[in-house]
């Protein structure tokens, strides 16, 4: 029986993937690494510890990696954060799930401070009490660590939970943790690229329109 829902944040509850990609491109360019938006954009959704080695061969825990990560957040916070919008239906869906007695947990590769700002931009910061961030996991998405941490925090078994996400990295992480994933197209990925999700919707608003707790029970 479904007892809780795990949410990704970027691209799922807040339309931030484009801004994240631009921030990485600009931070890398300032440091002398010319990496195009088209290269960075498909990497959004994995953690920075995965993105930097893939994009420019720099480890995130190196001095240069830490500097780049900090600068990327400065750019994101200063130039883009205030302009972010929730994805359609984000708050209404979370409210509905909570009113139905489901526990809502967030599983994000963002760090704690960044996650708080993103939840505020998504308009759900006051609704969600349980969160897991990069500090709760050794490895970021697509590794399952963050979802495993969210499962643990929920107090339920993986088959009593469903995750909502927007990238193939979310699907890989959820699958690795034994949690089924419902995908939304708000992150910019196609239906074909989200193969592995148990269902794909346009946005949280469409999930809400069709939501039936009985249909989400894994035993049905």
List its traits.
6 strands, alpha/beta, 220 residues, DNA polymerase, domain 1, 10 helices, Rossmann fold
Task: List strands and helices in order, with pairings.
Layout: E1 4-7, H1 17-30, H2 37-40, H3 48-56, H4 63-80, H5 90-99, E2 103-107, H6 112-122, E3 130-132, H7 145-154, E4 161-165, H8 168-176, E5 180-184, E6 199-201, H9 204-210, H10 213-216
Parallel strand pairs: 1-2, 1-4, 2-3, 4-5, 5-6
Helix pairs in contact: 1-4, 5-9
Account of the 3D structure:
The chain is α/β, with parallel strands linked by helices and 220 residues long. The protein has two domains: 4-15 and 85-216, HAD superfamily/HAD-like (Rossmann fold, 3-Layer(aba) Sandwich), CATH 3.40.50; 17-82, Orthogonal Bundle (DNA polymerase, domain 1), CATH 1.10.150. The chain is built from ten helices and six strands. It has a six-stranded parallel β-sheet with strand order 3-2-1-4-5-6. Helix 8 links the parallel strand 4 and strand 5. The longest helix is centred in the first third of the chain and has 18 residues, at 63-80. The N and C termini lie close together (9 Å).
Indicate the CATH architecture of the largest domain: 3-Layer(aba) Sandwich
Q: Which series of helices and strands comes N to C?
A: EHHHHHEHEHEHEEHH
* CATH superfamily grouping of the largest domain: HAD superfamily/HAD-like
SS summary, helix count: 10
Mean pLDDT: 93
Give me the side-by-side strand order of the main sheet.
3-2-1-4-5-6
Radius of gyration: 17 Å
Compute the number of structural domains: 2
Sketch the major β-sheet: 6 strands, parallel
Give me the CATH fold name of the largest domain.
Answer: Rossmann fold
| Helical residues, percent | 40-55%
The count of DSSP E runs of length 2 or more, i.e. the number of strands, is 6
Shape: globular
């Amino acid at each position: 029986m479904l007892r809780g829902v795990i949410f990704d944040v970027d691209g799922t509850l807040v339309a931030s993937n484009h801004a994240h990609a631009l921030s990485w491109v600009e931070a890398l360019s300032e440091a002398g690494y010319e990496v195009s938006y088209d290269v960075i954009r498909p990497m959004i959704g994995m953690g920075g510890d995965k993105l930097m080695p893939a994009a420019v061969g720099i480890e995130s825990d190196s001095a240069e990696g830490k500097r780049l990560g900090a600068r990327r957040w400065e750019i994101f916070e200063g130039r883009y954060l205030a302009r972010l919008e929730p994805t359609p239906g984000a708050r209404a869906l979370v409210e509905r799930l909570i009113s139905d007695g489901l526990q809502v947990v967030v599983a994000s590769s963002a760090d704690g401070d960044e996650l708080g700002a993103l939840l505020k931009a998504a308009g759900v910061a006051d609704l969600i009490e349980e969160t897991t961030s990069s500090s709760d996991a050794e490895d970021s998405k697509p590794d399952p660590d963050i979802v495993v941490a969210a499962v643990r925090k929920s107090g339920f078994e993986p088959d009593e939970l469903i995750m909502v996400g927007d990238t193939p990295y979310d699907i890989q992480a959820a699958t690795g943790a034994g949690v089924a994933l419902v995908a939304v197209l708000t992150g910019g990925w196609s239906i074909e690229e989200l193969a592995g999700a148990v269902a794909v919707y346009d946005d949280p608003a469409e999930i809400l329109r069709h939501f039936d707790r009985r249909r989400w029970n894994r035993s049905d």
